[in-house]
Design goal:
The chain is α+β, with helices and mostly antiparallel strands. Helix content is about 30%, strand content about 25%. The structure holds flavin-adenine dinucleotide.
Length: about 425
């Protein structure tokens, strides 16, 4: 390392930190002296897991309604100033990552998250960005318009500009342990901090028999209710988990609100339409099956439509014996069966913790940030990515937030070096 004084230090070499360093390098033509610090021995550990290793890096529909935050106004300005086109353009034109768009969702054309990480790392290596990996940042001091950064191994660095890109509080094995709170506890006002909570996660249920459904996947719709009204809904693949409960992208999308209800003592339930068909269509389908396969048990007659254990589960939910003959079902019982397939109500008793959640809610309030993601009047102090109180739905929205907030901070730093 040349010496310990930098124009800009970035703590966290995850999605937002790597991207901030790259944008800053680009707009200052490589003239900014940057140090990227990460507690891990390598960069982008969580980024490598994204999109099941395929990295869903953005979404054509990224707009403020796809996120939860304390300040939709600041979020909108930031997303608008560096939107999905700019992010994808930067990957294509600056980093050389070819991308593909599947139904509005952007991926690297290789469908490998490693392509994204390697391209960011290659670009930064070539431009002379410096790295310190393998020791976490332990302390930060702000004094006389600059920042002193001390690592756990005792190394010290100084810079006029500091970007905190330490992520949220999920998958702690990737290094994201919510450390923004401890690192900035003497700088950030307590009222600007929102506690981290799992946001995109699985939902647990103690419903009798639900564990037997572990591993079953079905395409349908989910509706989150508080017993009186529908709070949120989504559609896609529902996966029954081995812990007892449900998971899958559409479940994760409604999980933040379900978790908030549980934390307030409200017991939510999720109504799952297991086949994504209306009650009248199902009724007709089951009537036809009664006429055609009347000599079979209910399970036998429905096994071609859904897995056997799921047939048994919905039968019991409809107060029917799965071994009863299909021909013995009355019209009322056919109705009950159709209703249980299109509106299976799963009681929710808990939610997956930080080790299961893809994203956390909480962090430093967005309302306390300037447009450049500078914290209040603390000149040179920027916070980006999941360390801020912004969490998006599944579908590339969280990475788009990482890129947009990183670009805002990079522009802020560039204006000052
Ligand atoms: C399994 C999984 C799949 C996902 N898939 C997608 C997807 O397909 N699309 C999408 O949009 N989003 C996805 N996400 C969410 C997305 O990965 C995150 O929102 C994004 O990585 C956040 O970026 P970040 O830079 O804020 O934090 P991170 O990427 O978490 O990076 C933070 C970095 O800071 C480092 N760090 C923390 N504290 C310190 C410290 N004190 N000192 C030094 N270093 C420190 C960490 O080691 C880490 O490398 C997924 C998440 C998971 C877990």
């Amino acid at each position: 390392m040349s010496n310990n004084v930098f124009d800009c230090i970035i703590i966290g070499a995850g999605a937002s930190g790597l991207f901030a360093a790259s944008v800053l390098t680009k707009i200052t033509s490589g003239k900014t002296k940057i140090l990227l610090i990460d507690g891990n021995g390598r960069c982008g550990k969580k980024l490598a897991l994204t999109g099941s290793g395929r990295c869903n890096l953005s979404n054509r529909n990224a707009s403020v309604d796809k996120y939860h935050t304390d300040s939709p106004e600041v979020l909108k300005k930031c997303l608008d100033s560096f939107d999905y086109k700019e992010a994808v353009g930067f990957f294509e034109d600056t980093l050389g990552v070819a991308t593909v768009c599947d139904d509005g969702l952007y991926y690297p054309a290789t469908y490998r998250a490693a392509t994204v990480i390697d391209s960011l790392r290659f670009y930064l290596d070539e431009s002379g960005c410096e790295f310190s990996f393998g020791s976490k940042c332990a302390k930060i001091f702000e004094k006389d318009g600059s920042f002193d950064v001390i690592l756990e191994n005792g190394d010290r660095f100084t810079a006029k500009n500091l970007i905190i890109a330490t992520g949220g509080c999920t998958y702690p094995s990737t290094g994201s342990t919510g450390s923004v709170k401890t690192l900035l506890k003497e700088i950030v006002d307590t009222e600007d901090l929102v506690g981290f909570k799992p946001a995109l996660t699985s939902l647990n249920s103690k419903m009798p028999g639900i564990k037997a459904l572990a591993g079953i996947r079905c395409r349908g719709t989910v509706e989150l209710t508080d017993g009186r009204s529908v709070i949120d809904s989504s559609e896609g693949e529902v996966i029954f988990s081995k812990e007892g409960g449900i998971s899958g992208i559409c479940v994760m999308d409604i999980s933040g609100k379900a978790a908030a209800m549980l934390d307030k003592g409200i017991k939510p339930s999720v109504t799952v339409n297991l086949l994504g068909l209306s009650e009248s269509v199902l009724h007709k389908m089951f009537e036809d099956r009664r006429a055609k396969f009347g000599e079979r048990s209910i399970t036998g007659a429905l096994t071609g439509l859904m897995p056997r254990v799921l047939c048994e589960f919905v039968c019991r939910y409809a107060s029917l014996e799965p071994s009863s003959m299909m021909s013995d079902l009355s019209d009322k019982e056919i109705n009950a069966l159709a209703a249980s397939v299109c509106a299976l109500k799963i009681s929710v008793d808990g939610y997956g913790g930080t080790d299961k959640a893809q994203v956390s809610s909480g962090g430093v309030k967005l309302a306390s940030m300037k447009e450049t993601m500078q914290y209040k009047s603390h000149k040179g102090l920027y916070i980006i990515g999941e360390a801020l109180n912004v969490d998006g739905r599944c579908g590339g929205y969280n990475l788009q937030w990482a890129w947009s907030s990183a670009a805002a901070a990079a522009k802020g730093v560039a204006a000052d070096v």
